[in-house]
Every structure is written in structure tokens, then in C-alpha cells.
Design a protein that fits this description.
Helices cover 20% and strands 32% of the residues. It is of the alpha+beta class. The chain folds into three domains: 45 residues, no CATH class; 116 residues, no CATH class; 41 residues, no CATH class.
Length: 211
């Protein structure tokens, strides 16, 4: 296991330097997009997702509603199921659940084609997951499961408990991918299906969902 303080400091130093470089590029080439900055600063504290469900009437029971993206505009926009048009929402649109987005403000987007998602996490951040990780060429200790990659540095997660979700696919078919893995399937409102599994140890651990 990666229990060396020096090794963890090197990894965190590499990540922080990368984020500083990305931020400097934003400042140099364009105005700072606060939604991008917010995404960058939250990455280290993201928790791995262990379950996904659809919200009922905009509410999530024993889980949290996930932010699918951010939207910023100079004028009022109407958001109807993730589709936008300029101006205030009409009375009929408001009755259907559409929302008027305020100008010059970062608005959280929860809806994608009529679907809002709830997630459960393992409440372990990326930094904490490093204590349970190994290098790509190593094997998990006996009694631990290989749960997949936790970063692009090829660290793999080893856990005794249930692995987080490590593969998500959206398709037009109710049948999940035919790859021998066990999937859970959500029936979406736009005639599509979301399939997810925690058995793909050659994929990356899912800590956020964006559309």
C-alpha cells in the first residue's frame, strides 16, 4: 500500500502544480470561468459514487441530487429539462417545471432531458483513497478487491468493502453491455437507459457525472 508520506506529498505536489498551471492558462487566455475554477478546486474532495438512482419529484431519499453542470449567461435564460432559450420562462413553461436562470450568476444544472439523478457516495475523498491504493504493476493484498483506477497516474484502488462504480454507459437498449459484468439499469425519460457497474477493474472510479 502507498503508506509513504514522501510518496503522497510528491503525488499531491504534482496535482497542485498541474492545477496551478491550468488556472494560469485560464487567466492568460480568457476571463476566469468560475464554473471551471469551482470544478478544479472540488476535484480533490470528490467522493467515489457507489449508487445512482432517479429523483422522484425533484427529491432524493437518503442520497443527494447531483449537479450535472453549470450555466452562466449575460441575460435571463429559461431552462426546461436541460434545454435553454433566451428570456424569461412563460407561465406555461413554469407550470411544467421550467426555471428562469438569473443573468451574471453561475446556475447549477440538475436536469438532463427530464432526468434528475441521485447518488450515494462512500464519503472517502481522493486524498483518503490514496491510503488504499497501489501502483498499476502491484496486486491487492489478500482479502482486498481491485476496484479500478483512481487517477491518471495509474493508481488502483484496493478495498475490502463494496467497490465504487467504475463504469457507466447510456444507450438506446434496455440490455446492458455484453461484457460479462453485472449491471444496474435506470429507465430514463428520453427513451434511453443508463447502465452502471462496479465490476470493471480496468476502468476509472466514478466521482462525478457531467452532461
Amino acid at each position: 500500500m502507498l503508506d509513504s508520506t514522501r510518496q503522497k506529498l510528491i503525488i499531491l505536489g504534482f496535482i497542485c502544480c498541474s492545477y496551478i498551471l491550468m488556472l494560469s492558462l485560464f487567466v492568460h487566455y480568457e476571463r476566469i470561468d468560475l464554473s471551471k475554477l469551482k470544478s478544479i478546486t472540488n476535484n480533490l474532495n470528490n467522493f467515489a459514487i457507489i449508487d445512482i438512482s432517479l429523483s422522484e419529484n425533484g427529491k432524493c431519499e437518503n442520497s443527494e441530487k447531483i449537479i450535472l453542470g453549470y450555466h452562466k449567461t449575460k441575460e435571463e435564460n429559461c431552462n426546461c429539462d436541460g434545454k435553454f432559450h433566451l428570456g424569461f420562462c412563460t407561465y406555461e413553461e413554469l407550470r411544467k417545471g421550467c426555471i428562469t436562470l438569473k443573468p451574471n450568476k453561475i446556475n447549477n444544472i440538475y436536469n438532463w432531458n427530464g432526468n434528475e439523478f441521485c447518488i450515494k457516495t462512500n464519503n472517502i475523498s481522493y486524498i483518503e483513497l490514496l491510503d488504499h491504493s497501489i501502483n498499476k504493476n502491484e496486486k491487492c493484498k489478500e482479502g482486498y478487491k481491485d476496484c479500478g483506477y483512481i487517477d491518471t497516474l495509474n493508481h488502483k484502488l484496493c478495498l475490502k468493502e463494496k467497490c465504487p462504480i467504475n463504469k457507466i454507459e447510456i444507450s438506446n437498449s434496455i440490455k446492458p453491455p455484453n461484457d460479462g459484468l453485472n449491471y444496474k439499469t435506470l429507465n430514463l425519460k428520453n427513451n434511453k437507459y443508463l447502465h452502471f457497474t462496479n465490476e470493471d477493474d480496468n476502468n476509472y472510479i466514478i466521482s462525478s457525472i457531467k452532461f
